[in-house]
From TrEMBL:
The gene is dxr. NADPH binds at T10, G11, S12, I13, G36, R37, N38, N120, E122, G201. Pfam families: DXP_redisom_C, DXP_reductoisom, DXPR_C. This is 1-deoxy-D-xylulose 5-phosphate reductoisomerase. Its EC number is 1.1.1.267.
Length: 380
């Protein structure tokens, strides 16, 4: 029986992680969880899974639920998130919160030698050097949940790092794959939220439409697989059937395929190096699909991908600026305060105005994150 701490239980990845726990009650137990502001869903999850420790964003929500579930320990805020992450009984932390808010708690869980199943790519983008150094020092495994990285991880089983020629991340193209830049000028929030293949949280759905999601994933891959940016490529693949690939020096390419369903990579991270049946998953029927399509990525059409490569290669505090500017700009777009194309415009300006710090400490990263958000909000 593996005990799990789940940060972000009320989100898209969080609820799908709960589906996996529910399907294998003899394998997994939810020991601790965090939720943000969705108290109604948190209440239902607590009642279904009876975790021992629950953290909410606000003290007021924690107090309300505490009165309803007297046998359960409640906590809140930043400290609460850390308590969930380092909960002594848990062997695994699933980080499924949104944005850089999960950085601190993930670092602390690594120091407590928890295995980390990481969905939260912003943590690695913002502070990959600190996370990887801590993981190495503590002998902790970081298991990818992001479908592309899980695909690469699965393709690398039994392979040696020195034999890798390059990683090939596939990209569906998001909601606006077939539109020109001109046609992007007046797109609405509702249109942007309508992803053709995946059902995900709002922020990552917008990131898919701007292609920033793929940019963040390039940086995530750089850290997870210690791969130089010159060896990470992106390929448009609109069906989202091939989740990513690895090319080796002998020109062999290994890929992982499946229907688009996040529960598969989530479950693999929880069962690694084993596998379990996933009763409710749709099996892949290639004869029915018939054709798969691929196309070269256009870096002028998808400028956020270009910014991400540039920020990743510059290194230091630049990826933290990229991420914070993106989080702030996407929030503003979702609030109806800026247009879709202004997202990339604001990110570009934030990157240009930043004086890079090489090898930043956690404090310097958090200060950069805050400053960047302030800068973007000052542009509104
Ligand atoms: P959602 O927006 O659906 O869920 C986010 C979760 O984080 C919710 O539980 C939310 O709580 C909580 N949360 C948000 N803000 C805070 C905060 N300030 N403090 C504490 N908790 C907070 O996001 P997703 O599940 O889509 O994404 C989660 C992560 O996984 C992201 O990093 C994303 O990039 C990554 N990812 C997601 C994929 C997907 O298919 N969705 C695929 C691959 C990666 P509440 O709702 O209660 O407020
Ligand atoms: Mg992904």
């Amino acid at each position: 029986m593996k005990h799990i701490s789940l940060m972000g239980a009320t989100g898209s990845i969080g609820t799908q992680t709960l589906d996996i726990i529910k399907e294998h009650p003899e394998e997994f137990k939810l020991a601790a969880m965090s939720a943000g502001r969705n108290i109604d869903l948190a209440r239902k999850i607590i009642s279904d899974f009876q975790p021992e420790l629950v953290s909410l964003s606000e003290k007021s929500s924690a107090d309300i639920l505490k009165a309803e579930f007297p046998g359960i320990t409640f906590t809140y805020g930043h400290e609460g998130l850390i308590e969930v992450a380092v909960y002594p009984k848990s062997e695994i932390l699933v980080n499924a919160v949104l944005g850089s808010v999960g950085l601190d708690s993930t670092l602390q869980a690594i120091e407590e030698k928890k295995t980390i199943a990481i969905a939260n790519k912003e943590t690695l983008v913002t502070a990959g050097h600190l996370v990887m150094e801590a993981a190495k020092r503590n002998g902790v495994m970081l298991l990818p949940v992001d479908s592309e990285h899980s695909a690469i991880f699965q393709s690398l089983q039994g392979e040696k790092e020195k034999n890798i020629e390059r990683l090939i991340l596939t990209a569906s193209g998001g909601s606006f794959r077939d539109r020109s830049r001109k046609e992007l000028e007046n797109v609405t929030v509702e249109e942007a939220l309508n992803h053709p293949n995946w059902s995900m949280g709002a922020k990552i759905t917008i990131d898919s439409a701007t292609m920033m999601n793929k940019g963040l994933e390039v940086i995530e891959a750089h850290w997870l697989f210690s791969m130089d940016y010159s060896k990470i490529d992106v390929l448009l693949h609109k069906e989202s059937i091939i989740h990513s690939m690895v090319e080796f020096h002998d020109s062999s390419v290994i890929a992982q395929l499946g229907t688009p369903d996040m529960r598969v990579p989530i479950q693999y991270a929880l069962t690694y190096p084993d596998r379990l049946p996933l009763r409710t998953a749709n099996r892949l029927n290639l004869a029915e699909i018939g054709k798969l399509h691929f196309a070269e990525m256009d870096f002028e059409r998808f400028r956020c991908l270009k910014f991400a490569y540039e920020a990743g290669k510059a290194g230091g505090s630049m990826p933290a600026v990229l991420n914070a500017a993106n989080e702030a700009a996407v929030a503003a777009f979702l609030d109806g305060k800026i247009t879709f194309l202004q997202i990339e415009d604001f990110i570009e300006r934030a990157l240009a105005s930043h004086n890079i710090i090489s090898n930043p400490s956690l404090d310097e990263i958090q200060a950069t994150d805050l400053e960047t958000r302030k800068y973007v909000n000052s542009l509104l």
